[in-house]
Design goal:
The chain has helices spanning about 15-30, 70, 75-90, 105-120, 160-165, 170-185, 200-205, 210-215, 250-260, 275-280, 290-300, 315-325, 355-365, 370-380, 385-395; strands at about 1-5, 35, 95, 125-130, 140-145, 150, 195-200, 215-220, 240-245, 265-270, 285, 305, 330, 345-350. It is an alpha/beta fold.
Length: about 400
């Protein structure tokens, strides 16, 4: 079977890229042909035989004054044209879309359906919802100016995005996001999908508020390959946070908790806009951006990790990675993240954004190494679907 993976970034950038690379690797192992379509970039690590990619676009640069930029992020003729070239060269059986909005745009959906008519045969269109873009133009269901959770756009009318400046706190960008969402709602573009994969039940619940999407959603949890787990004996000598240093990740709340617990050593691994604040806390050691074996060792060596996110995470790999290395997780109760933790067995759950409750959990866990040891033992029995198991589900139940 020939499968075309579509994602705006074709280099390691976040969870959706981890997902498509691992899924593609496993499909290749099983004898399928896999190619990729997205933006060109100096760091691109996968591609397609036709060597067709869209020009690199950075929605964070603020260069919206360029005449054609606003139109490109709503409907990209370039993406549609180059996608059609890849389709003609590859002639796939399945097109698996991931993050496409703004940089690629849903124009690629129309490219698939147009090519399908030209070829006279069915092409299966699959989409994995890595965020809430199709029911919330800023994809996070969170107002950046206030940090408040927001469900206003779930009714299918997106004007609140413009009113609240929900995209990068910019009036212009938020208006464009509103226009984009309304445009595809009116056109019923997402009704052209065959299957929408939701990696968390929380994600499925949000997408199911739109009748067009609800008819197509399936729950299929993210996967992670089993890592080499740390021996159960001997608690670690630090508490670990690894991920982005940003407000929505709960870094501000976590740093406040760290300051209030000066006798507990913390290790942070990552980068982001709040890095200066991280460096100012005396009992926090900032390792910076860490990957590969070094990150695995940090995770495995921690007494427990903390995932204090203050937005509705979908199915975060960080929570899964921690437990797969035998390290329990203290996680906030927002979104799909708490679905990954069995409270009182493999970790604990606290109320997102509550500094006092977060501090209390950290203190109790640190002072009770026996509890952490039991949690680590229980983590050894966790079976988040491996890549192979996940792909089996897709091949059997989703792909033709």
């Amino acid at each position: 079977m020939k499968i075309l993976m579509v994602n705006k970034f074709l280099y390691p950038n976040g969870g959706s890229e981890t997902y498509i690379f691992k899924l593609g690797e496993e499909l290749l192992k099983r004898g399928h042909e896999v190619q990729y379509f997205g933006m060109e970039h100096a760091g691109r690590v996968v591609g397609n035989h036709a060597q067709r990619y869209t020009a690199d676009m950075d929605f964070h640069t603020g260069k919206l004054q360029k005449i054609f930029y606003p139109f490109k992020i709503i409907y990209s003729f370039e993406a549609k044209r180059k996608m059609e070239e890849v389709l003609k060269d590859m002639d796939p059986d399945v097109v698996h879309l991931n993050n496409i909005n703004f940089q690629l745009t849903p124009s690629v959906i129309y490219a698939v359906r147009s090519y399908e008519k030209e070829r006279g045969r069915k092409i299966k269109l699959v989409y994995t919802a890595h965020d809430y873009q199709w029911v919330c133009p800023n994809h996070m269901m969170r107002i950046p100016a206030t940090g408040k959770i927001c469900f206003a756009c779930r009714n299918g009318h997106f004007i609140e995005c413009a009113k609240n400046r929900c995209i990068h706190n910019s009036r212009v960008k938020s208006l464009l996001g509103t226009v984009e969402a309304e445009f595809y709602r009116i056109r019923r573009t997402y009704a052209l999908m065959d299957v929408i994969i939701c990696p968390s039940m929380f994600m499925k619940k949000q997408l199911d508020t739109d009748p067009v999407l609800a008819d197509r959603t399936v729950y299929l949890q993210n996967f992670i390959t089993a890592g080499k787990q740390r021996p159960a004996a001997g608690p670690g000598d630090y508490v670990l946070y690894f991920g982005r240093y940003s407000e929505e990740k709960g870094i501000g709340t976590l740093l406040a908790a760290c300051k209030g617990l000066p006798d507990i050593p913390f290790v942070f691994a990552g980068s982001g806009p709040l890095e200066e604040q991280v460096n100012q806390v005396k009992n926090v050691q900032n390792k910076g951006f860490v990957t590969g074996k070094n990150l695995h060792m940090l995770i495995a060596g921690a007494r427990f990790s903390v995932y204090p996110s203050e937005w509705y995470e979908n199915c975060p790999f960080s929570v899964m990675e921690s437990q797969m290395h035998g390290t329990p997780v203290l996680v906030s109760d927002l979104g799909g993240a708490p679905e990954l933790v069995e409270a009182g067995r493999t970790g604990e759950i606290f109320r997102g954004g509550d500094e006092e409750e977060l501090s209390g959990h950290i203190k109790e866990l640190w002072e009770d190494p026996e509890r952490c040891r039991k949690y680590r033992e229980n983590c050894k029995n966790i079976n988040f679907d491996t890549v192979g198991e996940y792909c089996d589900k897709i091949v059997r139940k989703v792909y033709p």
